[in-house]
Amino acid sequence: MSDTLQAVKGMNDILPDEAGLWLWFEDTVRDWLESYGYRNIRMPLVEPTALFKRAIGEVTDIVEKEMYSFEDSLNGDQLTLRPEGTASCVRAVLQHNLLYNAPQRLWYAGPMFRHERPQKGRYRQFHQVGVEALGFAGPDIDAEQIVMCARLWKKLGIRDVELQINTLGDAASRQRHREKLIAYFEQHKDALDADAQRRLYSNPLRILDTKNPAMQELVSAAPRLMDELEEDAIRHFEAVQAILKQHDIAFEINPRLVRGLDYYNRTVFEWVTTRLGAQGTICAGGRFDGLIEQIGGRPAPAMGFAMGVERLLALIQEDGMAPPPPALHVYVVHQGEQAQQLAWRVAEELRDGGVSVLLHCGGGSFKSQMKKADGSAAACAVIIGDDEVAAQAVMLKPLRGEGEQQRVGLDELKHKVRELIK
Ligand code: ATP
Ligand code: MG
What we know:
Blueprint: H1 16-34, E1 39-40, E2 46-48, H2 49-56, H3 61-66, E3 69-71, E4 78-81, H4 86-95, E5 104-113, E6 125-134, H5 139-156, E7 161-167, H6 171-187, H7 194-202, H8 216-220, H9 231-246, E8 252-253, E9 265-273, E10 281-287, H10 291-294, E11 302-308, H11 309-318, E12 330-334, H12 337-352, E13 357-359, H13 366-375, E14 380-384, H14 386-391, E15 393-398, E16 406-409, H15 410-421
Parallel strand pairs: 1-5, 7-8, 12-13, 12-14
Antiparallel strand pairs: 2-4, 3-4, 5-6, 6-11, 7-9, 9-10, 10-11, 14-15, 15-16
Helix pairs in contact: 1-5, 5-9
The chain binds adenosine-5'-triphosphate and magnesium ion (MG).
């Protein structure tokens, strides 16, 4: 077996035992998004590399070192596996002119790809649910997105997540802040790590986002963007907070929350848990009023966020919440040619009535088939042999709890099964 091919490191199989949790999560998320009027959009997994460079920013972790980029060997195009969804979503909206006469509330879900060092909660193929409200300028949509997250945590039974918020202000205040930051870090050049040195002039704001413990003190004492904010941005931020308070959503203002992507302005937020170790951010987002124009559209404000599905599911599993097991109602056991024909007919008819049926395939003795039925999740077995064919009936055997095996006529089978599985 030593030369059996393995999956790419950091790209996980989701096996059937675990997939049930995923399906339940996806159903819950879909209902939740619909309840806020968000509509689904689906974009390709591969986009022109230029899209991400332009949208995310050249001097970001993602574009500098995390993208799976390659040349299309047939025509030389530069392509990238999407590392996130916002850029593609905005590209699609502009390409198809969806903002023509109405704002859009959109969501998408699926795999994202980043070349990172795999560890718990950090993979190279991971999944996000992304939510974008395009064409909305007011603080109401910012607050609504945060309130809706809180509702989802409740639906999923997730506790122990904390909300951090911040405002990044607008372009002019960021420019002033940037100049002050450069001056400050220049004074402490010796204390900067290699990443920070490199970013000092290209993107000093990102130095604040460092994960290097040795730099925390320096970063804590850095000039604060808060002190540079314009009136409008402050009022916007206060309005978001007021709505959160009305809904009893607790939050902490974290002035060092700058987010890893260049395109954010004004409101940014993260939901963080301490239960998952270092990979504690389960959901992150913010306003990106400049992005649509940056990608080539007519300027329009926007606000969005993305959740890390693997991290959310890990949290759900930690908290011991189990989704209902998938429903398998009937296991059909049969022997003999005519019995097989009847078994097929019975199985199809039960399915017509909304019953889920596993029809035994592959032959074998009654005894070995019954063992498989017992080992399955089915609530009951339907057993068909020559005697049943002759009587145009089946044996119905409950597999869980009380109840005796009984012979049941074909016309009453659906009814009897329903009684057993309710
Ligand atoms: P981090 O600081 O953990 O690298 P990020 O700022 O790069 O996160 P975003 O781009 O904001 O993350 O993505 C939104 C969410 O997607 C994150 O909060 C996280 O839950 C999840 N996520 C990001 N990268 C990964 C990854 N490599 N593996 C699993 N989940 C991820
Ligand atoms: Mg990252």
